[in-house]
Amino acid sequence: MSIIIKAPEKTNNINVELPASKSISNRLLILNALSYSPHPIKNLSDSDDTKAMLQVFNSNTNHFDIGAAGTTMRFLTAYLSKIVGEWTITGSTRMKQRPIAVLVDALNQLGGKIEYMEKEGYPPLRIFGSSLTGGEMELPGDISSQYISALLMVGPAMENGLRLKLTGEITSRPYIHLTLKLMEMYGVKCHWKENIITVPVANYKPVEAKVESDWSAASYWFEIIALSNPGDSVTLKGLDRYSWQGDSAVAELFKKLGVQSKFSAKGLTLTNTGEYAEKFTHDFTKEPDLAQTFAVTCAFLNIPFSLTGLHTLKIKETDRIQALVNELGKFGFELNTNDKDNLVWQGDKKEATSDIEIATYKDHRMAMAFAPAALKHNLFKIADPTVVSKSYPAFWDDLRKAGFEITD
To answer: Per the confidence metrics, is the pTM higher than 0.70?
Structure first.
């Protein structure tokens, strides 16, 4: 299945109710369970990842299939390691290709017992839950922050707490900070100095929690305004001005691509200023989920770019670096990469192919990053549009409300 998108002539006076953050939702579900909280979490995300987590917590079985939900796989692996019982957890074909050895090895060193059921280093897993001894652990700082967050959240329940030393450059630092702030909200204060995070032995305290809207989802509306006409605007609801989400950096970064943002009682209003940088350069180590948004935006604004810090993109829902090279290439943009951690476009372009259909590779962010390009290139298709359910199920409905025509 694929869809065709036709953009409106003007994007103005639109109000958008953004989805709740799945990053916060899934962390809160783990913390709520660890605190034995009687309070339901307000404004939970309706994303696939959060639904998968809820399904596990509401289940009466010991075998879980979490589909393509990466955060769910990683957070539950750590959580189930401390819950007495024997558990198995599996996922989609792509999930079985996403490495998890770093987390499994760490948990096993901290007193857990986890086995691989098929391929060494990858899901599915058999987990023998028991008390974790904890102690000192050293990990590379450039691994997925989800591994680190998973360990931190169960750290207070370990017999000796957890002292985590991160070596080298620390990737996705804001996501680790987000985890620590949410843990503090539940009554456990950790100590992070330089590259060492110390988690004390402690009991989480139940609290009434509410999930804020998702800044990652907001990025696609920044992109829409950047690709619209000067003066066009949209107002986004539910965002926190002082958010702990790392992707809130999108507001500052998009100033270089012609988008001014301003908070008011109505929400966050984005306006196209018509003022663009001649070149865009940024290290996305702290905000890897924004890389696709900026690659597509810059390309269609004809702004040469150099994006670095992309090493974690190769182990996401797909190899996002190669996917961007492939799909932007269909429009004629000739991108370069070291196939490790960067993506560069120097302005080279050839003729676009005819009858373009964007492959989404079962990756929600590929679909959402390319959809706004309809403002600059008429009549192209996007394959497998339902992938947006992973984080923003109402994405296509919201585009329709904004005047986009979407047909099968």
So the answer is: yes
